[in-house]
Amino acid sequence: MIPFNKPYLVGNELTYIDEANRLGQLAGDGHYTKQCHKWLETNLGCKKALLTHSCTAALEMAAILADIQPGDEVIMPSFTFVSTANAFVLRGGVPVFVDIRPDTLNIDESLIESAITPKTKAIVPVHYAGVPCEMDTIMDIAARHNLLVIEDAAQGIMSTYKGRQLGTIGDLGCLSFHETKNIISGEGGALLINRNELIERAEIIREKGTNRSQFFRGQVDKYRWVDIGSSYLPGELVAAFLLAQLEQAEQITQKRLQIWHSYHHAFECHESTGKIRRPLLPDQCTHNAHMYYLLLQDLASRSTFIHDMKSAGILTVFHYIPLHSSPAGIKYGRTGSHMENTDHISDRLVRLPLWIGLDELQQSIIKTTRTVLQ
Which long-range contacts does 266-271 make (Cβ < 8 Å, 24+ apart)? Predict the structure, then answer.
């Protein structure tokens, strides 16, 4: 069976893990964590980066920094992972789901403003498949209504919107380094902070609500419990593995793009017959080839496709079940627009295997996919 995803090493992961062990600090915020912070700040352009044990943790930190209180509303797409909503529900917030665009599968920026109420506190655009949302419009809406913008860039590292890295455009950005992402550490994430006034509190929240970071910088004589928070740090072994991946981020991205473009070229003829639709990329945007998906004609077609591909030894998968129609989504959130595109696309989308090292296996996937689509 050709798997949908396969974790990979790029060179120095095990060497750095061994060195982290030799240095004698396996808890967080050691040498390798600091090197990862430096890489993210330098290469992405955020004001401050803080590693977390997951993107979920980064989103939870963002919800605290946004001062979400019971009843506060947060606008987001329904076509996203549960953590996008959960982070705010944990603070008593109410997810307000709006529909996605049929082209990029990102939040439809034209529906956001009509979903705003006096209770709205933030907008959370999700950059699906590493393809940028329409951030100029979203930032303009947020500025006019005094709202925070928290980018869920879990899939977006190394993608850009008009030359700016995803996660660095809003007030806060959240990255994932889960093993299914482009840059991996097994589990892992990062909070990108783009406003100076949020940095100090972010450090405190991440350190269980203490001013421990200030203590180690010599800014206070001892550290105390000063705010709410939790243990959001990853260990040094995770950071050591991650640094090796970050150092090869450009090479990883280029290899993934080669695979993505091979798929894209191979299925052009099938799109012209109307059997499928391929991914679309907006002008002035770059993407990181996080995934390659096909949109089939309907749910029955997708179910048959997944079954036939599996029978041929290739694992293909669908993606999100919409949050707005999920049990917890109905209980904790509400819709702020129609959900026509979300419902229709979630029934049709299927993802093909895409991982570093696919190499000659990709031709087998393409050949089988063409046969199944006939």
Answer: 266/366, 266/369, 266/370, 267/294, 267/366, 267/369, 267/370, 267/373, 270/370, 270/373
- Provide the percentage of residues in the chain whose pLDDT is more than 70: 100
Q: Domain segments of the chain: what residues?
A: 13-246, 249-373
Residues 58-78 pLDDT 10s: 999 999 999 999 999 999 999
The pair of three-digit structure tokens given for residue 310, joined into one six-digit string: 């599996």
Q: 132 falls in which pLDDT band (50, 70, 90)?
A: very high
Phi-psi region at 146: left, alpha or beta (left = phi > 0; alpha = psi -120 to 50): left
Cα separation values, 76 from 20, 82, 222, Å:
39, 11, 40
Cβ atoms 266, 366 nearer than 8 A: yes
Q: Are 108 and 100 in contact (CB under 8 A)?
A: yes
Amino acid at 31: H
State the distance between the two ends of the chain, measured CA to CA, in whole angstroms: 22
Residue range 183-242, pLDDT digits in tens: 999 999 999 999 999 999 999 999 999 988 888 888 888 889 999 999 999 999 999 999
Domain 13-246: top CATH class: alpha beta
Hey, what CATH topology would domain 249-373 get?
Aspartate Aminotransferase, domain 1 (3.90.1150)
| Single-letter amino acid code for the residue at 245 | Q
Cα 224 to Cα 204, 208, 213, 258, distances in angstroms: 10, 10, 11, 51
What is the distance between the alpha carbons of residues 234 and 145, in angstroms, rounded to a whole number? 35
